[in-house]
Each structure stands twice: as structure tokens, then as C-alpha cells.
Design a protein that fits this description.
This is Sugar ABC transporter substrate-binding protein. By secondary structure, the protein is α/β, with parallel strands linked by helices. The chain is built from 18 helices and 12 strands. The chain has 2 domains: 189 residues, Periplasmic binding protein-like II (D-Maltodextrin-Binding Protein, domain 2, 3-Layer(aba) Sandwich), CATH 3.40.190; 200 residues, Periplasmic binding protein-like II (D-Maltodextrin-Binding Protein, domain 2, 3-Layer(aba) Sandwich). Helix 10 packs across helix 18.
Length: 414
């Protein structure tokens, strides 16, 4: 996938301009979504089950630009599906959203509902989740699964030196992949207050935990031969291609990313991939999740009914059957998921333990949150470029990155 959302990225400015003048189509309800490619096709299959016509608009990662253009043009969609709880909070406080029945929030664990409750009012329902603490590999290529961070580092160093496939594939062209690495390390610390403060936009990136996490990434990513074609090639590699490097071309032994990797792997595999969890770095095994929430735009006559339907137990049956889908909704029967890993992952994300943390970059305020070439995504790409340069000064790279993160946090919250 060229982005977390699928195969086709719509340029934000072009999409916003093209859609700003669009009105409602034949009385159909309009839903703006972040998905594209296969995910978009699955969602369109889902809404075909709704009793009224629904028109789906794909905005790609930068859905914010599309919604702002549509708002200026007076042509808001009825419903939007947002990838970041920070957007839900911002739109709610700007008066863009319709409040929802609080009973809908009872369908999710409090850890999920709290993220899209603003000043005591529920403004969204979660329609999709992502488990983002998995490494994927073919059992014929990687026989031993590291169970600790030091074990993973040892595997990377030994595999990089033996002249075979590179130990790691990484879609560094998608900045969110790099932030997911950092977030799992930060989620591994027993004291989770720092993670929450960073997500709230506080300029605390010079904390020792962040420095330790960045230093650990620098050491692993800087191993010569860690990635197929080296660091520069990795910066041109998008997430979908990194999966293909493991399951099809076998240029790499393992790739880290979420449960949605299965949807890509299924298209190419001649051997079923297996997974192991992101290993503990400092105290606990992390569980980082992401998610997409449906909200009703102000003034919509039919948006509430559609969102209520999307939060029901059966709406997403077609997507579950097609694979590559998890829901945090407790009403969705676990028996709908295939036995084995899909069902286990679904159970884990919907009944989160204390260690669960929501994607940090998706919670950051304003311009700090990730977009292509912007915010924390860009900062981590610059860090990756610095540490994968031959004879890199790793300590300086950490110092520069910490300073940039703090400066951007202060600017975003000013």
C-alpha cells in the first residue's frame, strides 16, 4: 500500500479543489473516507447493504484538506471517517460535528470511547481498528522469532553479515511506518505518562526515554546491509513494496507493520506468512493500535442513521469475510473472524489491557501530526536518512531529531 490507507493516494490540494464544488448526488448520502484501493472497494461493498443510496468519496491521507474545502464551499458530506482522534476533537470544538447518542459509546471499551469524547460529549464511533505491533515473515526464511529487542538486534546484525536476504524490509517512504517503530518503543516503558503527554503535544521530546528509543532505532537502522538496497533505497520504498520484499521477492527476512499487511501478502504469497509481536524494549511488550472513526457533519439529515448502522454488529460482515479488517466494536461477533490470528487480534484490540496505546502521531495537534513530507513523519524520515548514511554520527542524529521534535511541538501548540 502506498499509504496506510491503500494503493491510491489522492493529492490533497487537487482532491479538495475537485470536490469542493460537488453537491449531493441524486439524494444519496455522502461519506468522505481515508481509504483507497482495496480498502475503498471493501467499504463500498459494506455500504451497499445500507437501505438508502450512499456515495463514497476517497480523500486519501489528507482528508482534513478535503473537508475544509468542502466546508468553505458549503458542500459538506454527511459523514466523514477520520483516521485521527485529534481531528475529531478539533472539528467538535469548531462546531463542525453533530453530537451522538452516548449509548453508542458503550459498544466500545472506555479506552476507545474516551479518544473521541470531547468535553463529555461523544462525537464519533469507531468503524475500524489496526493492530500495529507485529513483525511478518515466511517460516522458511526466518526460523527463529526474536522475543526481545536485543534478540531482534542480534538477528539483524547476523543476517546482515551473512550475505543472504536483508534482515529487514521497511517502507520508509511512508513516514507513518517510521513513527510506528518509535511509538512501539515508547509504549514499552512502564511509565506511560510520558506517552500521553507527548500525544497531547507537550514539548517533552528531550526526555531520556525518547532519547533511549531513538538511540536504539539508530543502532538497528544503521547496521550495514539491514535493508534491501540500503537506507537510500528504503526511503523510496513504500509500505506495500516492503511487504512484497518479504513475501514475494524474498529480498528481506521480515517486515514490521500492522494487521493490514495480511491484505497485501494475500495477493502475492506462495507460503503463508507468520507473525511475532514487537518485542519489549523497556519493561513491557507494547500494543499500539490505530483506528478510523465515523462522525456526522453539522446539518446532515441522514448522517446519524448511517453512523448508527455502521456501529451495528453486522454492517462490516463483507469486509471481515474479505480479510484485512478488525473492529473494536464489542457487538461484532468474534465468530465472524476466521479462526486463528484474525480472531485473536480482534479480541486483543477490542478488550485492551493497560499497555494498549493509540498511535501517538495520530493524536498530535495541528501541523505536528503526520502528513506526507510534513510534521513528525518528515522528522522521522530525516532521522532515518541521517542514521543510514555511511559513517553516520548517531548521537548527533538523536540530538538533532530531539531538538526538531521539541521545536515543532512548541510551534504546533503555540
Amino acid at each position: 500500500m502506498t499509504s496506510r490507507r491503500g494503493l491510491l493516494r489522492v493529492a490533497a490540494g487537487g482532491a479538495a479543489a475537485a470536490l469542493a464544488g460537488c453537491g449531493k448526488s441524486g439524494g444519496a448520502l455522502e461519506v468522505a473516507v481515508v481509504w483507497s484501493g482495496g480498502e475503498l472497494a471493501r467499504f463500498r461493498e459494506v455500504v451497499r447493504g445500507y437501505p438508502e443510496p450512499v456515495r463514497v468519496i476517497s480523500a486519501g491521507d489528507n482528508i482534513d484538506a478535503l473537508l475544509r474545502a468542502r466546508d468553505r464551499a458549503g458542500a459538506r458530506p454527511d459523514v466523514a471517517i477520520l483516521p485521527r482522534p485529534g481531528l475529531v476533537a478539533g472539528y467538535a470544538r469548531d462546531g463542525w460535528l453533530e453530537p451522538l447518542d452516548t449509548a453508542l459509546g458503550e459498544r466500545y471499551a472506555p479506552a476507545w470511547t474516551d479518544l473521541i469524547t470531547v468535553d463529555g460529549v461523544l462525537y464519533g464511533v469507531w468503524v475500524k481498528a489496526a493492530h500495529k505491533s507485529l513483525f511478518w515473515h515466511l517460516p522458511s526464511v526466518l526460523t527463529d522469532q526474536p522475543d526481545s529487542w536485543s534478540g531482534l538486534l542480534a538477528m539483524v546484525e547476523s543476517r546482515a553479515a551473512d550475505g543472504g536476504p536483508a534482515p529487514l524490509a521497511i517502507g520508509a517512504a511512508d513516514g507513518w511506518v517510521l513513527t510506528d517503530w518509535l511509538e512501539n518503543l515508547l509504549a514499552s516503558f512502564d511509565d506511560q505518562r510520558l506517552y500521553q503527554d507527548l500525544a497531547a503535544g507537550k514539548p517533552l521530546w528531550d526526555a531520556w526515554q525518547v532519547r533511549d528509543a531513538l538511540a536504539a532505532l539508530a543502532r538497528m537502522w544503521s547496521v550495514p546491509g539491514a535493508f534491501p538496497g540500503g537506507g537510500r533505497r528504503a526511503l523510496l520504498t513504500q509500505n506495500e513494496e516492503s511487504v512484497i520484499q518479504v513475501v514475494a521477492s524474498r529480498d528481506a527476512c521480515t517486515v514490521f507493520e500492522g494487521d493490514f499487511v495480511a491484505g497485501v501478502a494475500r495477493q502475492f504469497q506462495d507460503e503463508a506468512p507468520r507473525t511475532f509481536r514487537f518485542p519489549a524494549f523497556a519493561g513491557r511488550q507494547p500494543l499500539v493500535v490505530g483506528g478510523d472513526a465515523a462522525v456526522v457533519l453539522r446539518g446532515s439529515a441522514g448522517g446519524r442513521d448511517l453512523v448508527r448502522w455502521l456501529a451495528g454488529p453486522d454492517a462490516f460482515r463483507p469486509w471481515i469475510a474479505g480479510g484485512g479488517y478488525l473492529s473494536p466494536n464489542r457487538l461484532v461477533p468474534l465468530g465472524l473472524y476466521p479462526a486463528g490470528q484474525p480472531r485473536e487480534l480482534a479480541a486483543e484490540v477490542r478488550e485492551p489491557v493497560d499497555g494498549l496505546r493509540f498511535d501517538l502521531s495520530d493524536q498530535l495537534p495541528g501541523s505536528f501530526t503526520g502528513f506526507d513530507g510534513q510534521g513528525v513523519w518528515k522528522i522521522l524520515q530525516d532521522f532515518f536518512a541521517a542514521v543510514t548514511t555511511p559513517s553516520a554520527d548517531l548521537r548527533r542524529a538523536v540530538d538533532d531529531t530531539v531538538a526538531q521534535l521539541n521545536a515543532t511541538a512548541k510551534k504546533a501548540t503555540a
